[in-house]
Amino acid sequence: MDAIILQTLNGLDKGSAYALIALGLTLIFGTLGVVNFAHGALFMIGAFCAVTMQRILNLSYTVLDPTKKDFLGNPLKVQTPYVEHWFGHDMGAAIINWSVPLSILLAIPVMLILGFVMERGLIKHFYKRPHADQILVTFGLAIVLQEIVKQVFGANPIPTPAPVQFAGSIDFGALIGFAANTIVYPYWRLIYFLFSLVVIGAVFSFLRFTTFGMVVRAGMADRETVGLLGINIDRRFTLMFGIAAAVAGMAGAMYVPINSPNYHMGMDFLVISFVVVVVGGMGSLPGAVAAGFLLGILEAYASLNEVKALLPGIDQIIIYLIAIIVLLTRPRGLMGRRGVMED
């Protein structure tokens, strides 16, 4: 039982990332009808927003510290971060410590602008083109963005730690009645799961309870009719592209303590995220979220030693196996609209 609970937690952790990326992908496909293969690159850029924020907050200047001396008795030169100089030592150190959560403040405007530029500058020219053309151009864009990041930040992973308050692990088993140290799980993975629930809830609330969101949902269902009502639906869809990019960016920024960011991390998540979207149903936001968590949990269960002993290699193919079964039995996905991707 403890192994099952642990793997469930692992599945929710993986499913959180899958669901957030798939949610952005589905927003873009549902509003614009574009298959965006550059969405994984947006996740990667969000991760490097966290790296950039950490570097900005650690910018420092050299001062002489009279309390520290070299072997000749001269004051040593020490590096003092500007934030500690501006806000005081304790407050500055706290700001640096919380650089990963604070990176969301950088990721949101950066991703909104990047999403707007991508949609207006490139993707709008492919709305009426076949999906194959959309895949090729967005995949090419993803490679360009990946190489730019590689050139700027280098090819090696960059460790970006969580705040020290959440750097350790929690005895999760003791909280639910198991013996101490039976189920020990990292704090930040639980934080990431809760963060994903907040973001998903915010997106669904925005679409359901705001006038803007209701117009967008109406446009997703019948774009021409909404346009005939005098509403500039294209402008709203452009903003939704930016919101989808921001969701991917926030997901990447908060993920860096779990997986040190590197230039190819977007590609690592891209294929799986598209599988999640297809399984959940193209254009279905609830389907994307549900499939993300479902496939994350199934992938975690498939990695159990008992399962791998019975079915060697199942942990490597379980997601694709589920996708094949779903596509053979229900081509539009678990919660997809009738007629979408069924031709």
Helix content: 55-70%
Sheet with the most strands: spatial strand order: 1-2
Rounded to an integer in angstroms, the radius of gyration calculated over CA atoms is: 23 Å
Uncertain ranges: none
Molecular shape: globular
The main β sheet shows up as: 2 strands, antiparallel
N-to-C CA distance: 44 Å
Number of beta strands: 4
The SS-based structural class is mainly alpha
User: What's the level 1 CATH class?
Assistant: Mainly Alpha
Protein name: Amino acid/amide ABC transporter membrane protein 1, HAAT family
Transmembrane segments: 16-35, 42-64, 95-114, 191-216, 236-257, 269-297, 309-328
Keywords: Amino-acid transport, Cell membrane, Membrane, Transmembrane, Transmembrane helix, Transport
InterPro entries: ABC_transp_permease, BCAA_transport_permease
Defining traits:
single chain; ABC transporter involved in vitamin B12 uptake, BtuC; two-stranded antiparallel sheet; about 5% strand; cell membrane; transmembrane helix; mainly alpha; about 350 residues
Tell me what the structure shows.
This protein is mainly alpha-helical and 343 residues long. It has one domain: Orthogonal Bundle (ABC transporter involved in vitamin B12 uptake, BtuC), CATH 1.10.3470. The chain is 68% helix and 7% strand. It has 16 helices and four strands. The protein has a two-stranded antiparallel ribbon. The protein has a two-stranded antiparallel sheet with strand order 3-4. The longest helix has 31 residues, at 2-32. It is globular and about 80 Å long. It starts with a helix and ends in a 14-residue tail after the last helix. The mean pLDDT is 85. Keywords: Amino-acid transport, Cell membrane, Membrane, Transmembrane, Transmembrane helix, Transport. It is a multi-pass membrane protein. This is Amino acid/amide ABC transporter membrane protein 1, HAAT family. InterPro entries: ABC_transp_permease (IPR001851), BCAA_transport_permease (IPR052157). Belongs to the binding-protein-dependent transport system permease family. LivHM subfamily.
